[in-house]
Design goal:
Blueprint: E1 2-7, H1 17-30, E2 34-41, H2 50-54, E3 59-64, H3 67-79, H4 84-88, H5 92-104, E4 109-113, E5 129-134, H6 137-145, H7 150-173, E6 176-179, H8 182-185, E7 196-198, E8 218-222, H9 228-248, E9 253-257, H10 263-266, E10 274-278, H11 284-289, E11 292-295, H12 305-312, E12 317-319, H13 321-324, E13 336-337, H14 341-353, H15 355-372, H16 375-379, H17 382-385
Parallel strand pairs: 1-2, 1-4, 2-3, 4-5, 5-6, 6-7, 8-9, 8-11, 9-10, 11-12, 12-13
């Protein structure tokens, strides 16, 4: 098939959540079909990677997106009662290039990533138009509004309201839509749910040392700290959970790994056994240095790659229900799930005290990722979704995710 793939951000390198999904989707499609890619580049340093995309695709349209101008368009859209997210990615050059490409290539399918790119549907001629929402951004903005100051809360609520309406319009406009989990899809009130497909995220399995140890006494968090829900998670954990862990274990350390820590996060460095490491060239050495990984997100949508990556690194993960939603895994077997600060501290301390328990859960988590969360397995339904007359979920139930695999170690 001839497939056009449109993404709101260049899908390379795969170094953050949305780019991990888009890169692996692009690679999966390019191995099986002829693929054209159109994307924005919002970080000038990422222009160097366009050549990597061209090695995978028939053609690449990569349009620079100056963030200052994009933010101005977003604010303007908000004031005229339109979605700021769509305003941010509104671009005349992109629309023109897509129309030109559609006149020269007969596309069997066009796959759009994120609701923000849905606005370009009228610029593309293809036999089938498919929109990968991934998760519903309107719900993310609504969640952020609950934990923000009054001014930001007003802005976030307005964006949530307008984006929710736009998401329903796009669902009706496209031939098929994709969400990342049946949890995300379960209570979405849309008509004709046969058009709704569930395609989850996978994870790359790193090579692990055979002599892996679980006695470092380090608890770790990995995530892009420019993303407000990650910053909220780290600050809540440092204030509400970590002091309880340290009271019981004065030598325990908490390492925070991720780009763009705010001033508030940087101030945590050196306090109460906390190290703010910031951006690193490679995450795996830090996964291997942790005894326990935490995902204390209170605001989370879809599937958290950081949880999948920690499990693939054979780490015991202590996560909130929000961070683990959408991942088929058994509490107390593949990972530990709790949203209570006191219980979270207790579970972490139990793991720090029991290296064998860490190994047991980490081994089960790794095996679960091997069997169920490879990218090829997760993306297998994509080919059918891009074909005409494919049927999605009618009840919000996932099509391809198996029950959790119990692994005795």
């Amino acid at each position: 098939m001839n497939i056009l793939y449109l993404t709101h951000r260049i899908p390379y390198p795969p170094n953050k959540g949305d780019k991990i999904r888009t890169y692996n989707t692009l690679r999966y499609l390019a191995e099986r079909h002829d693929v054209w890619c159109a994307c924005f580049v919002d970080d000038p340093s990422d222009m160097q990677y366009v050549s990597d995309l061209r090695a995978m695709c028939r053609e690449v349209i990569a349009i620079p997106l100056p963030r200052l101008q994009a933010k101005a368009r977003a604010l303007l859209a908000l004031f005229v009662d339109e979605s700021a997210s769509e305003g941010f990615y509104q671009n005349h050059e992109m629309a023109t290039r897509l129309r030109e490409l559609s006149r020269s290539v007969r596309f069997d399918a066009a796959l759009f990533f994120s609701s923000s790119m849905g606005q370009y549907a009228d610029c593309v001629r293809a036999r089938r138009l498919v929109l990968d929402f991934c998760d519903l951004d309107s719900r993310k903005w609504a969640d952020l509004a609950k934990r923000s100051n009054p001014l930001r809360s007003w802005v976030y609520r307005a964006e949530a309201r307008m984006l929710a309406a736009r998401e329903r319009e796009l669902f009706d406009r496209f031939d098929a839509s994709i969400l990342i989990s049946d949890t995300e899809a379960a209570d979405w009130n849309v008509r004709n749910r046969d058009k709704l497909h569930i395609i989850g995220n996978g994870v790359a399995l790193p090579e692990l040392p055979r002599d892996r140890r679980y006695d470092s006494n380090i608890v770790g968090f990995v995530g892009d700290l420019r993303y407000p829900p990650n910053e909220d998670a780290v600050r809540w954990f440092a204030g509400e959970v970590w002091p309880r862990v340290r009271d019981a274990n004065s030598s325990a350390q908490f390492h925070i790994v991720g780009r763009g820590p705010s001033r508030g996060v940087r101030r945590l460095d050196g306090q109460n056994g906390i190290r703010v490491i910031g951006e690193v060239p490679e995450v795996l050495p830090h996964w291997l240095s942790f005894q326990v990984a935490v995902a204390p997100l209170r605001i989370a949508r879809g599937i958290q790659n950081k949880v999948l990556e920690a499990m693939a690194a054979a780490l015991p993960v202590v996560a909130t229900p929000q961070a683990s939603a959408g991942i088929w895994a058994r509490d107390g077997w593949h990972l530990e799930i709790t949203g209570d600060s006191m219980e979270m501290a207790q579970r972490i301390q139990q793991l720090l005290n029991e290296p064998r328990a860490c190994k047991h859960i980490g081994t089960a988590a790794r095996r679960h990722m091997e069997l169920n969360y490879g990218w090829s397995r997760q993306l297998e339904p994509l080919g059918a979704t891009l074909c005409e007359n494919s049927i999605g979920v009618a009840t919000g139930r996932a099509l391809m995710e198996p029950p959790p695999v119990a692994v005795q170690v």
